[in-house]
Amino acid sequence: MTELLQYEFMRRALLAAVLVGLVTPIIGTFLVQRRLALLGDGIGHIALTGVALGLLTSTSPVLTAAVVATLGAILMELVRVRTRTSGDVALALLFYGGIAGGVLLIGITPGASNATLTSFLFGSVSTVGEQDIWIVGVLAVGVVAVLAVFGRELFVLCQDEEVARAHGLPVRFLSILLAVTAALTVVIAMRVVGVLMVSALMIVPVAAAQQLSRSFRVTMGLAVLIGLVSSLGGLTTAFYSDLAPGATIVLLALAVFCLAVLLGGVLRRVTKRRTPAPQHPVAGGPADTMPQTDRGRVTP
Amino acid sequence: MSAQFTEDGAPGPDTPPAFQAVDAHAAYDGVTVLDGVSLDVPVGQTMAVLGPNGSGKSTLMRAMLGVVPLTSGRILLHGTPLRRFRDWKRIGYVPQRLTAGGAVPATVREIVASGQVARRRRLSLPTRADRAAVDEALAAVDLSDRAGDAVRELSGGQQQRVLIARALAGRPDTFVMDEPMAGVDAKNQRALARAIARLRDQGSTVVLVLHELGPLEEVIERAVVLEHGRVVHDGPAPAATGECARPGHEHQHPHPDPNDPDPSSTHGAAPAEMVRLEVPRRD
Asked: Among A109, B104, B153, B187, which one has the highest count of C-beta atoms within 10 angstroms of its own C-beta?
């Protein structure tokens, strides 16, 4: 482990991995709750255009990516609300526009190559610079602060938008706030796992955690733990085995997910044996009031 | 409590109505759903909104809370136009069901506590009073022992009670409940009726969308019947006509609970005693 810390670039990489492992599952829990699991993917695509703009204009790619991703997130939220019926198609248009714009701009940037493109698509945590760490650190603090201040309102919003309105909550503001926070998180995670896998760190730890939990808070805490274990473990493994760090991190998170599914199945079987069956099955009640028990089990 | 109340808790002569709809129109995708509804609900009244499917009952409820925008007309909450209304901690809303949104597990207690969102300050930890209000709300719907369970592990009727507890947890004095009895078995319906009677006794305003009065018959002071987005009856609860055997009857009243020792207390025993609204289906 000490060998790992000898290198300046590795110390920065580990710090970036900690920030990513900590922040992405928190925002991911809200996105999964709101059934917007793929929002991070879409923002990741758009962020690539921002990266390319930064390279082209010789400014920090992380900074331009943050600006473009934020604008993209606001646009996506507006598209989602305005065009109810074809929302997913409109979002898809934005995704592809983002990635095509990024590829095109990197292509015309002098000095940028396919290697530059690949490093942003799939992550290049070992090339994280001093300035990047500062930007990522500030963004991480910002994301956590937003969620600390607005967490309760966001929980109600993600649980049931209609109830949020009936509580007088500023639904549109909160929706945009969540999308922008997600965009900034994407930018934080981009350097570590790349824009194509950024969403995995938001979603996979949450998917794993909810196999083992019955509470929102516990799910979020577990997801952060799994995120940290995956990002630090993945980075260390990649260092010693000379593997691609981004891919190793994501595969490790997926392995934890598989483990959680198995463990969750065992846990549920044990608790089921202890508690009696529900007392009042609703006879002839409307289907939409039936319990939502389907958690996506894998056992036959 | 609001300053508008007199010392004994009763509304004073100057107290504005809890809800006021003035010539309210609303439409979904160009189809008129509310067609000029005017309605005052005085503070402290327990009122049922009845009518067939598609008559605009739920839309009226949602419009009264600003969930659905009006195309024309006005809504006032406690005398304040909806747009300027800020006293949301006075309002408790029970939606028709636990919407499928929310893919992350949440415990009963977490959901119930979220009903305090309008009255809690940002960045504040729950006070002892907040926690007590959640405990009371859980007890009022008889779910104290399920507080730590995941909501989605509960039956439909229990989830409905979770939603009612969520509305109670914010300690509001004005309630809007959209079909709180749907999918709830007879025993739980009677428990809910008692909870609503308690709210009325505390001086709360309660507006309920109902398909039929059922066990709430004694609690309801006034019934408004909507049809095609218009008020066609406003006054005492309408007398029952028809019976559940009618082909057009919306079959939603409770069936005898298999665990209920006294099945005669529900459907079938004394049809003359049960006020049941005739509900012709139009769709």
From this structure: B104
Summarize chain A as % helix, strand, coil (round to 5).
80, 0, 20
B118 contacts A169? CB cut-off 8 A: yes
pLDDT tens-digit profile of B271-280?
333 444 444 4
Q: Do A210 and B105 touch (CB under 8 A)?
A: yes
Rounded average pLDDT over B161-167: 90
A64: tokens are: 């331009």
With a CB-CB cutoff of 8 Å, which residues 159-188 of chain B face chain A? 159-160, 166, 176, 182-185, 187-188
* Whole-number pLDDT of residue B283: 39
Residues of chain B found within 8 Å of residue A208, distances taken between Cβ atoms: none
Looking at the complex, report in whole angstroms how far the Cα of residue B178 sits from the nearest Cα belonging to chain A: 12
Residues 121-140 of chain B whose Cβ lies under 8 A from any Cβ of chain A: 122-123
Buried b (16+ CB within 10 A) or exposed e, A163-201: bbbbbbbebeebbbbbbbbbbbbbbbbbbbbbbbbbbbb
The verdict on B149 touching A (C-beta cutoff 8 Å) is: yes
Residue B5, classified by CB atoms within 10 Å of its CB into exposed (0-12), middle (13-18) or buried (19+), is middle
CA distance, residue B177 to nearest chain A CA (Å):
11
pLDDT number for residue B253: 47
Q: What is the pTM of this model?
A: 0.81
Check if the beta carbon of residue B282 is closer than 8 Å to that of residue B244.
no
Given an 8 Å threshold on Cβ–Cβ distance, is B105 in contact with A148? no
CA B129 to chain CA centroid, nearest Å = 25
Strand B174-178 and strand B91-94: pairing? parallel
In angstroms, the Cα distances linking B6 to B38, B66, B198, B200, B233 are: 27, 29, 20, 17, 32
Buried b (16+ CB within 10 A) or exposed e, B173-211: bbbbbbbbbbbbbbbbbbbbbebbeebbeeebbbbbbbb
How many Å apart are CA B138 and CA B144, to the nearest integer? Answer: 5
Question: What does the block give as tokens for A93?
Answer: 């248009």
| 8 Å CB contact between B31 and B24 | no
CB of B143 within 8 A of CB of B158? yes
The answer to whether the Cβ–Cβ distance between B104 and A32 falls below 8 Å is yes
Look at phi and psi of residue B47 and say left if phi exceeds 0, alpha if psi is from -120 to 50, else beta.
beta
Residue B101 CA from chain centroid, whole number: 21
pLDDT in tens, A60-98: 888 999 999 999 989 888 887 776 545 577 677 788 888
* CB-based contact A160 B95, cutoff 8 Å: yes
CA B116 vs. chain centroid, Å, equals 17
